[in-house]
Design brief:
- By secondary structure, the protein is an all-alpha fold.
- It folds into 3 domains: 1-198, Up-down Bundle (Growth Hormone, Chain: A), CATH 1.20.1250; 201-253; 259-482, Growth Hormone, Chain: A, CATH 1.20.1250.
- The chain contains 16 helices and no strands.
- The protein has helices at residues 9-43, 47-75, 77-97, 101-129, 132-162, 167-171, 173-187, 202-220, 227-249, 263-293, 298-304, 306-326, 329-345, 355-383, 390-415, 426-454.
- Helix 2 packs antiparallel against helix 8.
- The protein is globular.
């Protein structure tokens, strides 16, 4: 049984290590969008290259995050966590030194592999190290500090882009890793799952990532209408079918099909796909809209996004408690509708938009909607499966959200009619942004309708989340094994 107490020096070192590790991945996911216009200008990149700068990371992270957790259980959670931190830092260094967009995109894909190792590992270390009486508080502190990192991320990214330059958005991870790794090796105990048999669904993970990559490529390059695009789309669909076949027939699949026998679990994941697809498209395009069209500096654009994360930090725990009393159906129906209204309010953001009257109202409504839905969504995911499958259910939901976000970043510019140079032309980008926001709002309305029709109150005495405070705006929080 884990016996480290939170108040002990070792407990504080463990908490510091996990916060540093998870903050690397969390900061990177929130600051890169702010840097995109400068990256495009400095590297002469097209809109497609900027989409890949975001999506190359998401493809490998979403495809491998479930596998990363299993590797830690078998080979040692500290070992895989440290490997992930070192890998992530090395890939970040490559990103920071990238001479062109092709190298940057390849390095971002490598970053995603590191993220898939360290992201589940940081939570697993807490749950495997702390005494049961202290574990919930340790998880709460970990998620709270992570939320603060998410809030600081856009501001920090904007400051780095405006000052030292966008490359420091990536290079900053190197000193964080140099601090994190020695502390982990010295103070964090090794742990593993004695029941883990060592059989990993590598084929399933590779097929899943390949399907995402091929479909994303087809969507991003679809405007070219070439034979390569058609072949990529067909190959992506074939890889998706092959992934489903493999998962149904493997003795130990990464994504067990029987977990979807729960109607509630399936329904909540459908809502997740809609909600986080809209969020992914919104945050990608809004960071560009504020800079390209409204004329904000990177620092101003990053700072502008703080209210949404601040509301999540302050009220997500209270929202979860309220949903425990009312049931998840109401918040999962109302939350997406509030976010849809926020995206329609963003239509006010045009050239020389005033922050207080044009931008802030939309972001406050957006934050209110996210506060309303994120905590109940996580709670309902956990409540819909057996306790032994809590980590699996949370990992699937987290991966689904990431996959939805990357597909949205790939598809939304196409659906909104953005040309390859649209982000260099304020009038063209503004027109496409005004077509994109109603599309995002429509997807959220679909998610709301699904929640109203399919989500029901969980059974009494079901599992509750340990992550009560949540500040990330891009994915639902991870929950580990119990």
């Amino acid at each position: 049984m884990p016996d480290v107490r939170l108040a002990s020096p070792r407990g504080k070192w463990i908490l510091l290590t996990t916060v540093l590790g998870s903050s690397m991945a969390l900061l990177d996911s929130t600051v890169v969008n702010v840097a995109l216009p400068r990256i495009g200008r400095d590297l002469g990149a097209s809109l497609a290259a900027l989409q890949w700068t975001v999506n190359a990371y998401m493809v490998t992270l979403a495809g491998l995050i479930l596998l990363g957790g299993s590797l830690g259980d078998h080979y040692g959670r500290r070992k895989i966590f440290v490997v992930g931190v070192v890998w992530f830092a090395a890939a970040s260094l490559l990103c920071g030194l990238a001479p062109n967009s092709a190298v940057l995109i390849a390095s971002r894909a490598l970053q995603g592999i590191g993220g898939a190792l360290l992201t589940p590992g940081s939570l697993a270390l807490i749950q495997a190290s702390f005494h049961p009486d202290d574990r919930s508080r340790a998880v709460g502190l970990w998620s709270g500090f992570g939320g603060i990192g998410a809030a600081v991320g856009p501001f920090l990214g904007g400051w780095l882009v405006t000052g030292p330059g966008w490359r420091w958005v990536f290079l900053l991870n190197v000193p964080l890793a140099l601090l994190c790794v020695p502390v982990a090796l010295r103070h964090v105990p090794e742990s593993r799952d004695s029941t883990e048999h060592g059989r990993f669904d590598v084929l399933g993970a590779v097929l899943g990532a390949l399907a995402l990559a091929l479909l994303t490529y087809a969507l991003i390059e679809a405007r070219a209408g070439s034979a390569v695009v058609a072949v990529s789309a067909a190959a992506g669909l074939a890889a998706t079918v092959a992934f489903g076949y493999v998962e149904r027939h493997r003795p130990d699949p990464m994504l067990p099909p029987d977990v979807f026998a729960s109607r509630q679990f399936t329904a909540v994941n459908l809502v997740t796909l809609c909600v986080y697809a809209a969020f992914g498209g919104f945050f990608f395009l809004t960071a560009l809209q504020l800079q390209v069209v409204a004329g904000y500096s990177p620092l101003a654009a990053g700072t502008a996004m703080l209210p949404t994360t601040a509301l999540m930090l302050l009220f997500s725990a209270r929202s979860g408690a309220l949903a425990d009393r009312t049931g998840p159906r109401l918040p999962l129906t109302a939350g997406p509708l509030l976010c849809a209204a926020a995206m329609l309010l963003m239509l006010r953001v045009g050239p020389h938009a005033d922050y207080l009257t044009d931008v802030l109202p939309a972001l406050l409504v957006m934050g209110a909607g996210m506060v309303t839905l994120v905590a109940p969504l996580t709670a309902t995911v956990l409540a819909s499966v057996d306790t032994a499958r809590a980590g699996l259910a949370s990992g699937i939901n987290n991966a689904a959200a990431r996959a939805a976000g990357l597909i949205a970043v790939a598809a939304l510019p196409l659906l909104a009619g953005m040309g390859p140079e649209a982000y260099r032309l304020p009038s063209a980008f503004d027109a496409a942004f005004r077509r994109a926001m109603p599309i995002c709002a429509g997807v959220l309305v679909v998610g709301s309708a699904l929640a109203f029709a399919l989500v029901r109150r969980p059974r009494p005495g079901c599992l509750r989340p340990e992550c009560r405070t949540h500040g990330s705006v891009t994915v639902p929080p991870l929950e580990g094994q119990r």
